[in-house]
Design a protein that fits this description.
Layout lengths: L6 E4 L6 H10 L6 E2 L2 H6 L2 E4 L5 H11 L1 H5 L6 E4 L1 H4 L4 E2 L4 E2 L7 E4 L10 E6 L1 E2 L13 E6 L1 E3 L5 E7 L1 E9 L2 E4 L7 H13 L1
Parallel strand pairs: 1-2, 1-3, 3-4, 4-14, 5-7
Antiparallel strand pairs: 5-6, 7-11, 8-10, 9-12, 12-13, 13-14
Length: 199
């Protein structure tokens, strides 16, 4: 890649847009929030952040026509938290049809004695497959806030355990995702974003 990366954050209406933008700013990268097709298509890297509910995030993308555009993108795309969940075919949360860029379904994490849902706090990554996105992140601690997860995704490159294993990071071709919040995961989160920018 020549020149500085041109990163855009898709306007998914998520409350974490500002904090994700700030995380890129700490790396010296301006990452504007946009729903403008031309700006998105001209970007070198596209980020789909999201917090809240899958249904409302998908509704926002459909409202902006971004659900159609995302499927056509060829540059590296990463979904964060709910943004990662939206990459799959569907989510059990609100019985939501998602983007279908990755095979599989997002389901509710099961609660059990000593296992609280939502899964909130720090957890350790375990590498399942070598990938440039997860370089240097094996056994690193990252920060999660979620009740739903992709639990048997073929695209899993790192996983965590909260009662049972779930996908912490996924990748297939140019489509990637992180279930945790890099913007709240200190040095490990910054490493993930640097890895993404290097793709």
């Amino acid at each position: 890649m020549t020149g500085a990366p041109r990163v855009v954050l898709l306007d998914s209406g998520g409350a974490n847009l500002g904090s994700v933008r700030a995380a890129f700013a700490r790396l010296g990268v301006d990452a504007p929030v946009t729903s403008d097709w031309n700006t998105i298509q001209a970007a070198t890297h596209v980020v789909l952040p999201g917090v809240g509910a899958a249904a409302s995030a998908m509704a926002r993308l459909r409202e902006n026509g971004l659900d159609k555009l995302v499927a056509r993108l060829t540059q590296p795309l990463i979904g964060i938290c709910i943004g990662m969940q939206l990459l799959f075919e569907s989510s059990e949360e609100g019985d939501t049809e998602c983007l279908g860029l990755l095979p599989g379904k997002v389901t509710r994490l099961p609660s059990s004695p000593g296992i609280r849902i939502p899964h909130m706090g720090w957890n350790r990554l375990e590498t399942m497959a070598d990938h440039p996105l997860s370089a240097g992140l094996d056994q690193q601690w990252v920060y999660f806030v979620h009740s739903y997860a992709a639990r048997d995704a073929a695209s899993t490159i790192t996983r965590c355990n909260h009662g049972e294993p779930f996908a912490a990071m996924v990748a297939r071709g140019s489509v990637m995702g992180a279930q945790f919040h890099p913007e709240r995961s200190a040095a490990a989160g910054a490493r993930l974003l640097k890895n993404f920018l290097a793709l």
